[in-house]
Amino acid sequence: MRHKLLLFFLIPMLFFAQNFESLKYDLVPVESKFGTDTIKCNENLSIYSEFYKQKNYLGAIESWTYLFKNAPKRTKNIFIHGANMYKSFIKNEQDSLKKFNLLNDLLFIYDARNFYFPGQEGLVKGMKGAELYRNNKAQMNSVNEAYNILKESFSLDQEKSTARALNYYFQSAAKLTSNKLLSKEELIDLFSDVSNVIEYKEAEINQVIFDLSESDQITSKISKKIKKNQKELKTLSDVRSNMERILAPHVTCEKLTQLYSSKFKENIEDYSWLERAAQLLKKKDCVDSSIYYDIAAELYSKNPSARSAFYMGILSVRQENYIEAKKYFTQAVEVEIDNIKKADYLFYLASTYAALNNYKKAKQSALDANRLRSSWGKPYILIGDLYAKTSRECGENTGNQQNDEFTKRVGYWAAIEKYEMAKKVDPNSINEADKKISIYQKQMPDKISTFNIITLQQETYQIDCWYSEVVKNPYYSK
Q1: Percentage of residues of the chain with pLDDT beyond 70
Q2: C-alpha 253, offset from chain centre
Q3: Residues 50-90: tens digit of each pLDDT
Q4: How far is the C-alpha of 111 from the C-alpha of 27, rounded, in Å?
Q5: 248 vs 2, 236, 243, CA distance in Å?
Q6: Is the pTM of this model over 0.85?
Q7: DSSP secondary structure string, 65-107?
Q8: What CATH fold (topology level) applies to the domain 2-210+220-251?
Q9: Extents of the domains making up the chain
């Protein structure tokens, strides 16, 4: 085997560059993962694996091709590594015809992977569509094919879709729209679907990063996972920004209201259309319109699901009918099984309780939301707002002006602690939390009044009102 390895190193690279063998063959089930010759299978696996580790893809290609054609069930890595190698070959190939043939082989590798190792069809189709668009976007037939592959991938994976697949799905659709092969309405529908998935994925990934960061020991493996997820978040943010940039003139409240009003009657039986419209009207804060009312009511009457109940809750809040809003948000919470979505509904329920001045239930619902989504700062900001709002109401009225004024201001300490907690768990909350901290620091007890009432040697202070909270004395010194 050592002699064979040496031979591969010595064969001129030009030979491989000019003599890639076509990969295509009829995909048929195989009985043995070793093919017809177990020894030859393992020998070629060893050779290609060694070259692949060294990133000597030209050295690996002959043995890899043998496995791909003769023992495709040997290991899924045949397809994972093969795709990586062919992407490298395509990148380095200058001849357009050879590049085209290499691309066709790469696409076939994805097809073969789904055939021999099913179970991740959406993911693999996403990779296939992305590579087709990325490498042949000048040809509209390829753009259209890539779009259809990515559309199928999205249909299969939905919220499991990768940021890369979402990116090229929208890019291919935008290119088809600019060439009048898709309508603007179809692109707006896609924008609604994809942006909804992006919001969900961002929440989910932030939670993963938070959980990993809370590990007792940040190993190199954990650090690698954190960086991978941070990269995915960055890509999702870029995709959203690109989508917003392209569609900004077409997704104003005025334009959306006109569009959905004109199309409502003809789509009244199309639940998917109604769902998309409600999603986008809510996302763009266009829920004051009569068309949002019509769509939300129609969705709920057709299927009183968690999502349709949520849309009715949003409508009720905008109409300041908080009793109805509470009913709908409670229903959404009770029906929903996905923790990310349930946390969202719980937050809206908490905000509704706050509007009804039921502060205890508002706080509890906010904490429940945070329990399901501990990387989210908004629930803590809401609790902080409630503490700040009721700070003076929670103070004492003993007749001792200095004491009473102090007790009416310590609620701001509690509020600030919640804002600080929001910053700690969620970087996206930092700007909002800092603004509120800046406001309420001016209203909390100053150092002199704190010294006069509890002294600077008292480390904590107990607040007992509609809530019970032990807060730190910010001026504490031993």
Answers
A1: 96
A2: 24
A3: 999 999 999 999 999 999 999 999 999 999 999 999 999 99
A4: 9
A5: 61, 17, 8
A6: yes
A7: HHHHHH-TTS-THHHHHHHHHHHHHHHH---HHHHHHHHHHHH
A8: 1.25.40
A9: 2-210+220-251, 377-478
